[in-house]
């Protein structure tokens, strides 16, 4: 395995360790306790438990909107968990614990995306078959707000 | 091939118009250490990487950088979508307005346009991975500087998230470099170029 050598960069390979919950990981920007390295000038930023659909903004929202935001929040959190785990597995392809966790989370994520397509609109083209809206008269891919509008966060 | 997902990796909801902040943040779209540069750097370097898993990592991080570019663009868009001419003048956003109105265009905070000169694809695995490590640190410094300068929590939260990603990517590129080193002779990593002198590289396996 790798050691320390002169005249080249040496970075220790990360070992599997404690993980944050899906909610916490989203706030922090990584699932790994060992890689959480905050910056002092940003420590005062109070992140709500749920940065995506904070309850204070719920006033005046329809039930459909708040249901949609809740499901979108779950999808965003679990997808990010998978994003970070993917990069870990790219350099730790034989880590059994990580592989097992990946399998669990990806199944759950697929299920949530399917539900989102059934209840609201498809987030990806492979989700189009799950849309049960009036897909015969209008193409559902264009449904839902554009992600940069901050409307369905 | 890529698949688009109609959502942001980290949600952005900014309610206050602020062209000054937009003008600073736009650097992470088209600036020297921005997300577009990062993505193009990794997605260019991957083809000739001698260790397959490193090419895979470059693909995944290069893809995540595209998602970060979308987050930055969403922030700039929301900070300027209800812009008035008076606000543009006051904030010094008028020059940008003349050329692009409130559309997105990749440029640095200093208004230099995006250019491929900002990154390298050198064709030597050790050189490229060392550049990638530096790139993540440079981007982190930009986020540090932005976080010091911008007090609005609606803006700070996504910036804080993006900054954390730079630290994680640094670690992964370090591990990718270790993987590459494992396949070379530790007595002299520089005896040949594993990306070009393929026969010598494979003779080592």
What's this model, at a glance?
Chain A is an all-alpha fold and 153 residues long. Chain A has helices at 22-28, 63-91, 96-119. The mean pLDDT of chain B is 97.
Commentary on this structure:
The complex is a heterodimer of chains A (153) and B (205). Chain A has 153 residues and is an all-alpha fold. Chain A has three helices and no strands. Chain A has a domain of 97 residues. Chain A starts with 21 loop residues before the first helix and ends in a 34-residue tail after the last helix. Chain B has one domain: Up-down Bundle (Ferritin), CATH 1.20.1260.10. Chain B is built from nine helices and no strands. In chain B, α3 runs antiparallel to α7. Chains A and B meet through α1 and α2 of A and α4, α7 and α8 of B. Chain B: It comes from Mobilisporobacter senegalensis.
- Assembly type: heterodimer
How confident overall, as mean pLDDT of chain B?
97
Q: Which CATH class of chain B is shown? A: Mainly Alpha
Main sheet properties of chain A: none
Shape of chain B: elongated
**Class from secondary-structure proportions of chain A:** mainly alpha
The residue fraction in helices of chain B comes out at 55-70%
Low-confidence stretches of chain B: none
Rounded to the nearest angstrom, the radius of gyration of chain A is 19 Å
Radius of gyration of chain B: 19 Å
Element-level helix/strand string of chain A: HHH
- How many structurally independent domains of chain B? 1
Percent strand of chain A: under 5%
Annotated CATH topology of chain B: Ferritin
Identify the overall geometry of chain A.
globular
Number of helices of chain A: 3
Break the fold down into its secondary structure elements and pairings.
The complex is a heterodimer of chains A (153) and B (205).
Chain A: H1 22-28, H2 63-91, H3 96-119
Helix pairs in contact in A: 1-2, 2-3
Chain B: H1 19-25, H2 27-30, H3 35-45, H4 52-80, H5 85-91, H6 94-100, H7 125-149, H8 153-182, H9 198-203
Helix pairs in contact in B: 1-4, 3-4, 3-7, 4-8, 7-8
């Amino acid at each position: 395995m790798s050691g320390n050598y002169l005249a080249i960069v040496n970075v220790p390979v990360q070992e599997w360790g404690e993980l944050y919950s899906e909610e916490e990981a989203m706030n922090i920007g990584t699932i790994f306790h060992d890689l959480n390295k905050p910056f002092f000038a940003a420590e005062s930023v109070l992140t709500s438990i749920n940065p995506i659909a904070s309850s204070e903004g719920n006033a005046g929202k329809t039930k459909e909107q708040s249901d949609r935001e809740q499901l979108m929040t779950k999808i965003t959190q679990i997808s990010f968990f998978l994003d970070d785990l993917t990069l870990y597995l790219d350099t730790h392809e034989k880590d059994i614990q990580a592989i097992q966790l990946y399998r669990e989370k990806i199944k759950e994520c697929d299920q949530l995306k399917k539900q989102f397509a059934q209840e609201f609109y498809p987030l990806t083209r492979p989700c189009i078959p799950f849309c049960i809206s009036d897909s015969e008269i209008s193409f559902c891919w264009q449904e839902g707000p554009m992600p940069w509008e901050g409307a369905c966060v | 091939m890529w698949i688009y997902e109609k959502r942001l990796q980290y949600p952005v909801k900014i309610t206050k118009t602020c062209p000054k902040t937009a003008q600073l943040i736009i650097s992470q779209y088209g600036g020297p250490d921005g997300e577009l540069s990062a993505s193009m750097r990794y997605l260019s370097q991957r083809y000739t990487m001698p260790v397959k898993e490193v090419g895979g990592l470059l693909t995944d991080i290069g893809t995540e950088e595209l998602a970060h570019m979308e987050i930055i663009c969403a922030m700039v868009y929301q900070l300027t979508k209800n812009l008035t001419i008076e606000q543009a003048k006051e904030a010094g956003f008028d020059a940008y307005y003349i050329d692009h109105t409130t559309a997105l265009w990749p440029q640095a905070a200093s208004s230099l346009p995006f250019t491929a000169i900002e990154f390298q694809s050198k064709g030597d695995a050790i050189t490229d991975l060392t550049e990638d490590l530096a790139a993540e640190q440079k981007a982190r410094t930009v986020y540090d500087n932005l976080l010091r300068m911008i007090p609005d929590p609606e803006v700070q939260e996504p910036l804080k998230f993006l900054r954390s990603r730079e630290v994680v990517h640094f670690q992964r590129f370090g591990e990718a470099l270790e993987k590459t080193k494992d396949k070379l002779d530790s007595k002299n990593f520089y005896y040949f170029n594993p990306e070009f002198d393929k026969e010598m590289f494979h003779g080592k396996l």
